[in-house]
Amino acid sequence: MAAAEYYGYQPDYVTSNDDLAYPPYGGSLPQHSFATDTSYNPHKHQRDSTTSVATQSKLYADPYAEDIPLNTRRPSMPSPEHSPSSLPPVESALPPPGSKHRPPHLSQAVKRRPWFCWIITAIQVIVFIAEIARNAVLTGSPIEIKPSFNPMIGPSPYVLINMGGRYVLCMQYTAELWQDSNGNPIEGPVSFPCPWTTKNDANCTLAQHCGFSGVPTQEEMVRDHVGPNQWYRFIIPIFLHAGIIHICFNMLLQLRLGVDMERVIGPLRFALVYFSSGIFGFILGGNFAPRLVVSTGASGCLFGVLALVLLDLLYTWRDRPKPRSELAWLMVDIVISFILGLLPGLDNFAHIGGFMMGLMLGLTVLHSPNALRSRIGLGVPYSPMATTRFKESGVKAGAFLKDPVGFFKGRKGMWWAWWLVRAGMLTCAVVATSLLLRWFYKSRVECGWCRYLSCLPVSNWCDIGNLDNSMRYSNSTTS
User: Where does the record place Low complexity bias (predicted)?
Assistant: First the structure.
């Protein structure tokens, strides 16, 4: 598949073949890094001998350091009697992996382990096992087979609602449930499907239907116009999945795409984008998706990671062997994923929201593109090793805290312009999240055409899960 070819690509800066990665991206190293203190007359030797010595000495120096070498032991100089052919090849002169003389930033990508991806994947698998077990306890079967079969091979939607899936009726006051078309209170009890049901019936209260706490009684909702406030349903669905097929596809993508990206940007940045993208996707879906559907899955998070992959490709465009081919495959994957999101049972709003948040936060937390860094005089290219970036750029980790004013002195205009872009994207992310939350809880925005972003207008697909004055059974969607 297109995804397999793209996600299987391993950029130069995360491979273990570090000998081929320096000088970075084929660039030339600073002249002062090659300086060699010799005590003999260089005119007695051939030009190629001097060049070989200089080339060998750069292997033991940090090409970006001003005065702090990585190896305090000065390399021994060859005797004037030695011929150039006696010098070891450059490729074999670099200390092997694991050697104490090997620069630490060469082995950082190999040492870094994607703990966040491994831990979050393990949690999601454990939670899915709990879903299967709970469905078996409540309905007598580990997967839904009655009243209909779950095509994702997983629990019933009512079990997913009861375990914390994003479900609007459990999160806000829904006037259509408690008032008739004239705005008068509904007379008589309003019933909902029970989590343990295997029939098309509705015999439970909203509190039993939703589970957890914070659900008022029907009398309180009718009298005071208050509703449930289970806000955590924007977060919990990240760990829930609708079936075996659903979780297998998501975890496969997470362990291929997510692991590589975590190694590139580090666990903190990755976790920030991962959770923010997933939560924003569920908030967007809560505003515009049908209200009688339950949405689960980590696809919104993964679409945020996909946005990071796109930005990473653009940031290192000139340093990649076939950037146009990579971009073409990536765009094919993105377009196909969004098209599949139009099918019933898939929450395309979670995909769209996750991708949008991934772009905004990616521009905020990723380091500057290589082209920009070269223009503003930063010799260090876009590096995957976040933990060593301060060392490589000559800036100590505590420099900003020790001297905030000095940190900003001498910066070029392009540096300030890019930081304005970062600040603008962060502001957009905060404002967009705040507006969507306000619309969700205070004044739901009605958008007639927005539903077509998550469905195709065929076979009444866009009417599935819509809420009118008659209670309809919930349908499950995955993200």
Answer: 75-92
